[in-house]
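User: I'm curious whether this sequence folds into something compact or stays loose and floppy. Could you predict its structure so I can see for myself?
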Amino acid sequence: MACAAVLIPGLLRGSSGTVCFQAAPLGLTPRVLRCLSLSCVMRSQRKSDHLERTANVVRQEVVSAAKVCAVANESPSVKRLRLLVADKEFSFKAGQWVDFFIPGVSVVGGFSICSSPKLLEQERMIELAVKYANHPPSLWIHNQCTLDSEVALRVGGEFYFDPQPTDASRNLVLIAGGVGINPLLSILRHAADLHREHANKGSGYETGRIRLLYSAKNTSELLFKQNILDLVNEFPEKIACSLHVTKQTTQISSDLKLYITEGRITEKQLRDHISKETLFYICGPPLMTDFFSKQLEASQVPREHICFEKWW
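Assistant: Here's the prediction. I'll summarize afterward.
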C-alpha cells in the first residue's frame, strides 16, 4: 500500500511525549526485531510490496514488539485488531500507518492506524482494521492471527493531522472510500479528543467544524458506523457526516437512513465546504483520490490545504 501526500505547513509538525510503560518486553527481542526487519526488506521482492512503494517515505527509528489483545470482525471482509505496544518510545500522529512485521512471513504489511493517539498514550494500545486480500500479511491476519500473537511495528507516513496548541483553528473535510476510512477515523478521533481537552481546560488547540464524507459499496462495508455516529451525536455542533453507498441491494435500517445517501460523493458536496479555513484529507482508491484532489485544485483550493493518501 503506497501513499502520496501534500504536507500542510504549520499543522503537520512533530509531537513529543510518551508515557512510561513498565510491562516486560514481549517475546520479540531487539535483536530478533532487527533481524526480522532486515530479512523482510531483503526477501520482499514483489514490485507492488509496501516497503518498496514507500521506500522514500519518512519512518520512525523505533521498531516495537506488539501483542494482539483483541480480534473482531468489523465487516464481512475486514478484521479489526487491538495491539498492546511494548516500547514506550513508540508514538504516532493521527493518520499515520505502520510497517507490520510478522514472524515467519517474508512480506511486510502496511496498515493505517484507526485509533487516536490518546489510546496509545493512556493504554499503550493501537487499533488496525485490515481488509481480506490475497496478500500474505492480510491472509495471516484473517486466517492465522489469534489472541497473544506477537508482531513488530514501525510508524511511518506523511499523511497526518497534528496541530499544536497555538495553531489557528481549522475546519476539516475528511473524504474516505472503503478502508480508506482508517486514517481518517484516527484523525476524527484525535480531533474529538482535542475538542474535549479544550472544552475541559479552556486551553489547547481549538478545532473547527469537521465534515466526514464516506463512501462504500453497501452499509455492511461502511466501517465503524457506530463509532462515527457516536461522535456525531456527542458533538452535533462540531462533527457531521454523510455516509454514501454505491451498490446497496438490501433495505437500509431505520437508524441509518438519516445519514445514508445512495450514490457517490458529489463535487457539489465538496464545493459547499470550501473556505480558506478548511483543510481536506482524502484517502481511498487511487481513482477516487485523484478525482477529488483535482476537483479541489480546480476550485482554487491551495495545494497545501489538500492532503491525500492512496491505498492500492
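Summary: The first helix runs from residue 30 to 43. The domain at 30-156 is CATH 2.40.30.10 (Elongation Factor Tu (Ef-tu); domain 3).
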